[in-house]
C-alpha cells in the first residue's frame, strides 16, 4: 500500500538525489522552466528586494484543497500517480515556497513594518500558506533553503495574515510587483493565475532614518563638504528653505567651494532673501574663477536677478 504522502516523499527523495548529483558536477548555468527574477523598490532610503523564480500556469490547476489520502488497502503506486495528476500545484493549508526552485528571498536594508508589524533589516526566505479566504505570509530566518522542503516553523521571524483577491485577468507567470508606492511605504503584490495577494511594507520614520544615515556618513567623513550639500538639496526639493540653508552653511563651514556658495545663493533667492542671494552669488563667482570653475550659468542668473527677471 502506497499513500500519497509516501509517494510525495519518494519524489522528494529523488529530487534530493538529483540535486546532490548536480552539486558534484561542474557548475553550468542551464535554462530553467521557472526563470529567476528580481524586483526592487526603494522607499525613502530603504531598499526592498524580492528574488524568486516564476512558475507558469501551463493549463494546470493551481489552487485547491489537497487530495485525500488513498483508501487503505486499495492504493498502488499508479493510483497515487493518478491522484497526483489531479492535485493542485499549490494546495490550501500547506506551506508554499511562493515561487519555484530555491526559496523566495525578501531583503530589506532597514527595519520596516509589514502590515503594521516590525521586521528587522536582513534577508529572509518568504513562504506562504494559501487559503480560500486568508493567506499567511511568513518571513523565515533560513534564507538559503531549497523551496520549502526544509522549512522549519521555529525559524519564523514574522507571520502576517492577508486577504487574497480574485482578479479577472490570468497571470500566466507568477509575479511580484510594487504597484503602489508612497514616500514612506510600498504595496507588494504576488500575482499568479487569477489570484493576487497584497501586503504593505512601511518605513516608519523616513526622515529620522535619513538623518541617522547622514550623521553616520558625516562622522565617517568629516572633511567631505558634499554630504551636507546633498542634504541641502534634499530639503530644497521639499521647499524647506530654512533647513536647506542650515545644511548649506554646514557644507561651507567644512570647506568653502564654488558649488556650495552657488547653492546657498540659489536657496537664499528661493527663500525670498534676494539681496543676500546676490551678495553670495558674487562671492561664489569669485571663488569659481579662483578655482578655475565654469561660472557662466551663475553669472547669467545673477544678471537676471539684478534685472528683476
Quickly list its features:
alpha+beta; Serine Threonine Protein Phosphatase 5, Tetratricopeptide repeat; 6-stranded antiparallel beta sheet; 12 strands; elongated
Textual characterization of the structure:
The protein has helices at residues 4-24, 77-86, 206-220, 226-237, 241-254, 258-270, 274-290, 296-306, and strands at 35-43, 46-54, 63-64, 90-91, 105-108, 112-114, 117-119, 122-129, 135-140, 156-162, 165-182, 185-202. By secondary structure, the protein is of the alpha+beta class. It folds into 2 domains: 32-70 and 87-202, no CATH class; 221-306, Tetratricopeptide repeat domain (Serine Threonine Protein Phosphatase 5, Tetratricopeptide repeat, Alpha Horseshoe), CATH 1.25.40.10. The strands form 3 sheets. It has a 6-stranded antiparallel beta sheet with strand order 1-2-5-8-9-10, with no helix packed on it. The chain has a 4-stranded antiparallel beta sheet with strand order 7-6-12-11, with no helix packed on it. Strand 1 (35-43) and strand 2 form a beta hairpin. It is elongated.
Topology diagram in text:
Elements: H1 4-24, E1 35-43, E2 46-54, E3 63-64, H2 77-86, E4 90-91, E5 105-108, E6 112-114, E7 117-119, E8 122-129, E9 135-140, E10 156-162, E11 165-182, E12 185-202, H3 206-220, H4 226-237, H5 241-254, H6 258-270, H7 274-290, H8 296-306
Parallel strand pairs: 3-4
Antiparallel strand pairs: 1-2, 2-5, 5-8, 6-7, 6-12, 8-9, 9-10, 11-12
Helix pairs in contact: 4-5, 5-6, 6-7, 7-8
Amino acid at each position: 500500500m502506497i499513500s500519497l504522502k509516501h509517494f510525495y516523499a519518494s519524489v522528494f527523495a529523488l529530487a534530493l538525489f538529483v540535486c546532490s548529483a548536480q552539486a558534484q558536477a561542474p557548475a553550468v548555468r542551464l535554462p530553467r522552466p521557472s526563470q529567476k527574477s528580481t524586483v526592487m523598490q526603494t522607499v525613502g532610503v530603504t531598499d526592498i528586494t524580492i528574488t524568486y523564480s516564476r512558475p507558469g500556469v501551463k493549463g494546470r490547476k493551481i489552487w485547491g484543497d489537497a487530495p485525500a489520502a488513498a483508501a487503505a488497502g486499495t492504493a498502488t503506486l499508479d493510483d497515487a500517480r493518478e491522484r497526483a495528476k489531479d492535485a493542485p500545484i499549490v494546495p490550501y493549508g500547506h506551506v508554499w515556497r511562493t515561487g519555484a526552485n530555491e526559496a523566495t528571498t525578501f531583503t530589506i536594508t532597514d527595519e520596516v513594518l509589514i502590515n503594521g508589524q516590525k521586521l528587522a533589516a536582513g534577508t529572509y526566505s518568504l513562504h506562504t500558506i494559501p487559503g480560500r479566504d486568508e493567506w499567511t505570509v511568513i518571513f523565515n530566518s533560513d534564507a538559503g533553503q531549497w523551496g520549502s522542503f526544509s522549512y522549519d516553523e521555529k525559524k519564523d521571524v514574522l507571520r502576517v495574515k492577508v486577504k487574497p483577491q480574485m482578479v479577472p485577468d490570468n497571470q500566466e507567470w507568477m509575479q511580484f510587483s510594487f504597484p503602489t508606492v508612497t514616500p514612506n511605504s510600498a504595496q507588494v503584490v504576488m500575482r499568479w493565475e487569477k489570484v493576487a495577494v497584497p501586503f504593505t511594507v512601511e518605513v516608519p520614520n523616513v526622515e529620522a532614518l535619513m538623518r541617522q544615515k547622514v550623521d553616520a556618513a558625516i562622522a565617517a567623513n568629516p572633511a567631505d563638504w558634499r554630504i551636507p550639500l546633498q542634504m541641502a538639496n534634499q530639503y530644497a526639493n521639499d521647499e524647506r528653505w530654512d533647513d536647506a540653508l542650515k545644511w548649506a552653511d554646514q557644507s561651507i563651514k567644512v570647506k568653502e567651494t564654488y558649488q556650495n556658495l552657488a547653492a546657498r545663493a540659489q536657496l537664499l533667492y528661493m527663500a525670498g532673501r534676494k539681496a543676500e542671494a546676490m551678495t553670495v552669488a558674487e562671492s561664489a563667482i569669485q571663488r569659481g574663477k579662483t578655482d578655475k570653475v565654469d561660472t557662466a550659468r551663475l553669472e547669467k542668473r545673477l544678471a537676471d536677478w539684478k534685472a528683476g527677471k
